[in-house]
Structure formats: structure tokens, C-alpha cells
Write a structure and sequence with these properties.
This protein is mainly α. It is built from eight helices and no strands. Helix 4 runs antiparallel to helix 5 and helix 4 (65-84) crosses helix 6.
Length: 165
């Protein structure tokens, strides 16, 4: 796959992943719109290949469905940010932006989760107060880690016992 087709590939993955092709999105039309976008952004320029892909490589590291929804939410947001300054008088720009906006509304708010991850990365684990808090929470964290989906389901499906007083 060439660097020129990464935009189409990423958008196609996003659209297919959320099942939009069966509803209102026509792949051939989207491909034509993206081809026009490539011309608008001069994506055949030689510097496009520098440094490799910016989105598709990251998608391969996120394997679970819910994980992918988080990263795809961020990617769609970044595309929408890119389209904010684009010429919306062009039909192909409007069409792609509308489809991305529709997809964005169907995705979870990954920004809050991303912020949580960034906040965790900023924690100063050498700080004694942070270490005390972490040790205090360790058992709860480990309990969450070993909980399996079936044990969670079992807890919810057990009937509540009532006191026979």
C-alpha cells in the first residue's frame, strides 16, 4: 500500500468497522471524494512518505473492540479538526466531513479516556505521597484486574437475597 492511499484506507477501516456502508455511505462516492481531497492537499508530494503512516500503524496496536473504538474516536476527531479549516464550499469536503461527523456521534467520548491516560503518565511515582496512595489502592486495583467478564455477569445475575426477619 502506498502512502497516498493511507487516508482512504483509514477512512475505509473506520467506516467498515462501524457498518456505515450498508446504511448511507457509498464506498465508490467516498473514494472519489477522497481522491479529490488528495488533489486538494497535494498528497502525492514526496514528503507524504516521510516517517511512515500516522494513523494506520497505531490502529494495529489496539486489538480489542472497545480499545479500537477509543483510538478511532480520537482519529475521527483529528480528521474533523483538519476539516475545520478546509473549503466547505466543495461538495467532496462537505460529504467526507458529514460522514465523519456522523461517525463521531456514534463513537464513545475517547477524549476523557485519553485524558485519564495522560494524567496517569504525569503521576510522579517517586513522590512519597503518591506512593502511599498507590499502595492504599493496590488491592482494589488487583481485584479489578482479576475480575473476569463471567464473574461480573454472575454477580449481576444472582438474585438478591432478602432478609426473612
Amino acid at each position: 500500500m502506498t502512502c497516498q492511499t493511507y487516508s482512504l484506507f483509514v477512512l475505509s477501516v473506520i467506516m467498515i468497522y462501524f457498518g456505515r456502508f450498508g446504511n448511507s455511505l457509498i464506498l465508490a462516492q467516498l473514494q472519489n471524494d477522497i481522491d479529490q481531497l488528495k488533489a486538494d492537499f497535494n498528497s502525492s508530494h514526496s514528503d507524504v512518505a516521510d516517517g511512515g503512516p500516522i494513523f494506520t500503524e497505531k490502529l494495529t496496536r489496539w486489538t480489542e473492540r472497545n480499545e479500537k473504538r477509543i483510538i478511532l474516536s480520537q482519529i475521527v476527531s483529528m480528521y474533523l479538526e483538519m476539516f475545520e479549516n478546509a473549503d466547505k464550499s466543495k461538495a467532496h469536503v462537505r460529504h467526507v466531513a458529514e460522514e465523519l461527523y456522523t461517525l463521531k456521534n456514534s463513537l464513545p467520548d475517547g477524549f476523557k479516556k485519553m485524558k485519564d491516560l495522560m494524567d496517569l503518565a504525569k503521576l510522579q511515582m517517586s513522590d512519597l505521597k503518591i506512593q502511599r496512595k498507590a499502595v492504599n489502592e493496590l488491592l482494589g486495583v488487583l481485584q479489578k484486574l482479576v475480575e473476569t467478564p463471567t464473574s461480573l455477569k454472575r454477580k449481576r445475575s444472582q438474585p438478591q437475597r432478602r432478609c426473612k426477619c
